[in-house]
Design goal:
Mean pLDDT: 92
Low-confidence stretches: 1-7
Order of helices and strands: HHEEHEEEHEEEHHEEHHHHH
Helix content: 40-55%
Number of helices: 11
Structural class: alpha+beta
Strand order of the largest sheet: 1-2-3-4-5-7-6
Shape: globular
Strand content: 15-25%
Distance between the termini: 35 Å
Number of strands: 10
Length: 347
């Protein structure tokens, strides 16, 4: 099986009226100080190099002096809206703007600096895509992480997710504290694998998630977080929703095979499934409304929906599931079945 048959530039799906209504209630749909298109009116790009001096996927964006000051003021206002509900934060300035033209959402990365102490933060401005919006909201509701984002028409603004890219972490773990607690890293990868599978988040190759290393007294904890959510409930092959099957994640899989056994991995999967069921219960009302909107939304080609319906029906031994007609319907049934195996369903 070719697990790399994911389209690098998937079709963008608009935010439906039902999803917009949901975002309004959740405080996600706002009037932003600027649009994604405003940043596209730049005067040029310069290659951006990483800390080792090698070219990266990012380019520094250049703006003319005539519009730079006004644009930077609006970027600061956007950042304030994202992290402080629009309340003014003194002494902020824009330090840089970078563009990654290769990603599905072609994101702009904005670096904000506090001029009093030079402390800095990042946020991202992207093209709005319904898959990603559903992915962000499901991340907020069903994962152990909370995430801030705002939507205004074709513009999506997201907070920065702290962590080391998964491929960089395993390539040079000594740079990030080393593999000081291999058992905990294996546990987190198994739990992350289960979270992606249950919520049908695809394409979680090592460069699409980050590892947050947390020092805790005499131990080290790890948290793996998805950063590329464009493939939420979009692909047709069931295995594409399981990070363990991507060759880019082989170092994590091999570590798990060496450090923990199948029985321990099964215990961790059940633990995460139980935690997700609890999160679903705590978020029952918004989750139900979100899945209702998703059930009537088109966020994947019909062929993908039909294929995933067949494969989920075979996986769960539920022939009726093969008749599902939307990704939202599939996700709801999939969650219900997985949670029911622990004792009862999500609703």
């Amino acid at each position: 099986m070719d697990l790399h048959a994911i389209q690098h530039r998937k079709q963008f799906y608009p935010v439906s009226a039902a999803l917009q209504d949901y975002l309004v209630v959740q405080g996600r749909l706002v009037d932003l100080p600027l649009a994604y298109a405003d940043l596209m009116r730049h005067e040029g790009l310069m290659p951006h190099h990483d800390a080792d001096g090698r070219p990266s996927l990012w380019y520094s964006v250049l703006f003319g002096p005539a519009e730079r000051d006004a644009l930077f003021d609006r970027l600061v206002a956007t950042y304030q809206l994202l992290i402080a509900d629009g309340r003014p934060i003194e002494h902020l300035r824009v330090a840089s703007i970078d563009l990654c033209p290769y990603g599905n959402s072609q994101p702009f990365r904005v670096k904000i600096v506090n001029q009093l102490n030079e402390n800095h933060d990042y946020f991202y401005i992207k093209r709005t895509d319904a898959n990603r919006v559903y992915g962000l909201e499901l991340e907020h509701l069903l994962s152990p992480n909370r995430i801030n984002f705002l939507v205004d028409g074709g513009t999506l603004v997201e907070e920065h997710i702290i962590g080391v890219p998964g491929d960089a972490f395993m390539a040079h773990p000594e740079r990030y504290g080393g593999l000081r607690n291999e058992v905990r890293l294996c546990k987190e990868f198994v739990k992350f694998n289960e979270r992606c599978f249950l919520r049908l988040l695809g394409d979680m190759r090592a460069y699409n998630f980050v590892v947050d290393v947390i020092f805790d007294l005499d131990q080290v904890q790890y948290r793996i977080r998805a950063i590329d959510l464009d493939q939420q409930s979009h692909e047709g092959r069931l295995r594409l929703y399981l990070p363990q099957f991507f060759k880019e994640n082989l170092p994590y899989v091999q570590l798990c095979q060496r450090i923990i056994g199948h029985e321990t991995a099964r215990q961790y999967r059940n633990e995460e499934r139980a935690l997700m069921r609890r999160r679903a219960r705590l978020s029952a009302e918004p989750l139900d409304i979100l899945l209702e909107a998703m059930g009537h939304d088109e966020i994947a080609p019909r062929a993908h929906v039909a294929q995933l319906a067949r494969e989920l029906a075979d996986h769960h031994g539920m022939p009726a599931l093969a008749q599902a007609t939307s990704m939202g319907e599939l996700l709801r049934s999939h969650l219900d079945h997985c949670f029911a195996e622990l004792g009862d369903a999500v609703r």
